[in-house]
Amino acid sequence: MKKIKWLVPTVYIIFLMLPIYWLLNMSFKTTTEIINVYSLWPKDFTLENYVTIFTDSTWYMGYVNSITYTVFNTLISVSAALPAAYAFSRYKFLGDKHLFFWLLTNRMAPPAVFALPFFQFYSSVNLFDTHIAIALSHCLFNIPLAVWILEGFMSAVPKELDETAYVDGYSFGRFFFKIFIPTIAAGIGITMFFCFMFSWVELLLAKTLTATVAKPIAAIMTRTSSTSGYELGLLAAAGSLTIIPGAVVIYFVRNYIAKGFAMGRV
Amino acid sequence: MNKTLNQRAWLFVIPVFVLVAFNAAVPLMTVVNYSFQETFGSNVFAWEGTRWFKEILHSERFHASLGRQVIFTFIILLIQLPLGIGIALTMPKKGWGVPVCLILMSMPLLIPWNVVGAMWNIFALPDIGFLGNSLNSLGFDYNFTQQSGDAWFTTILMDVWHWTSLVVLLSYAGLNSIQPAYYQAAEIDGASRWDIFRYIELPKMKKVLTLAILLRFMDSFMIYTEPFVLTGGGPGNATNFLSLDLVKMALGQFDLGPAAAMSLIYFLIVLLICWIFYTIMMKDEGRT
Questions:
Q1: Do B110 and A5 touch (CB under 8 A)?
Q2: Interchain proximity B112–A261, CB inside 8 Å
Q3: Do B122 and A254 touch (CB under 8 A)?
Q4: Which of A23, A71, A92, B270 would staple A108 via disulfide (CB 3.0–4.6 Å)?
Q5: Could you report the per-residue pLDDT of A216-239, keeping only the tens digit for each?
Q6: Could you give the CA distance from residue A127 to residue B43 in angstroms, rounded to a whole number?
Q7: Contact A179, A161 (CB under 8 A)
Q8: Residues within 8 A of A (CB atoms), B 42-71 only
Q9: CATH class for domain B48-287?
Q10: Domain count for chain A
């Protein structure tokens, strides 16, 4: 039993890495090689696909756009969710349970449903094709999730902490920023990770709300299909690059994730 | 925890309320508005009452795509939950293995959804993809662009690849919150491995599993981008799930009225199932 225990995660990780490896493999091939030769590694190694992306501003600006609205969204979601989650975890108030469930219902609306109305709505308030429009629209599903996760972490902190601080003469603001936020730092780290993740991977709304200026990389990738078929090499290279920001974020929050998971409240 | 009654807590909730309502209320009302009308283009509308709702509820097309969606979500939950819990149970609890597992397992979650679709498309192509090529050289007649069974298999495998890690991460968090004292007590009582799982680990994971089931249910029921890129709903209508069908109707045929009515029915189905599940889980919580 002990011996085979490591086997399960290992096999699972290999399964996860296979398609990613295949994408990387293709990104170092030319499109002709991809179509004509089947090989487990690039025979005719080339960086041409990556060079195309990094020298063409319509390509690399896509990454800048995506990162911009994702960061905006993470900041808005977490800072709005912090006080709300505190209220839900500490107080009873009129309609609290209904409000909490109502928040969750917004996570349940299929984005496909909202695509067209969102387009009309954001056009009418003159925010169409801006980063802030996507950041705001992603609040629809990120804020409910952020409130839910943060509420879990905050409920795990004993209420005595608040009371002791007030007895010691702390004002609410000073207590919240100086004591409470550092206590749940790991929880905030995890929440930011989830918000970043869901905003980074979402495409339908981001694509609907942009035309040129704020167009996300995932939407720019559709350019690789043309009348002469797909430029598979370029597509693979662009796809491989979208993995990097996520990997960087995981690297930075890995300690928070481990710690937050040790607190055991997600 | 006993909470104090404080109506001023509403002040803390206002920013969240405004941001979400701003995004939810106006578009939702637009959809409701469309669902009762017929559009003739250039902003001419005519009142249609509940005609679209009646049509959708009786349409074979809707029943077929809803049926496919329900089967898909059911299979997904059936595979991902036990698999995710199983992997979380076998993951290392300390040492260098923890960050390695967490980082590598989170990777699929952080890849944009259309990249996931594109990636699986080139991974599964029967001639140049690793999966398709390997299966064919092993003697299987595999082609997901032609055979509906293969298309289902590929879509499900893709979703398992994409989302099982979420269940793993959440279950792992739940498992980590269990105090060692529980295990020691179980050992003294001579509990079997199954007993430990059934009476200690599973109840302790209840809260995170509720979240995992809700998230997996919602997201798999609303799946759009990945199958759109992978199969485009084909071959034929084999993997034409509810959201794919909806977008085809709304944007492809520009039937705003029926599409809006279908959106609302769709939303209400998700809402109803989540509400039932949430109420059951929370009721149990209150009792124990």
A1: no
A2: no
A3: no
A4: B270
A5: 887 887 776 655 566 788 888 888
A6: 21
A7: yes
A8: none
A9: mainly alpha
A10: 2
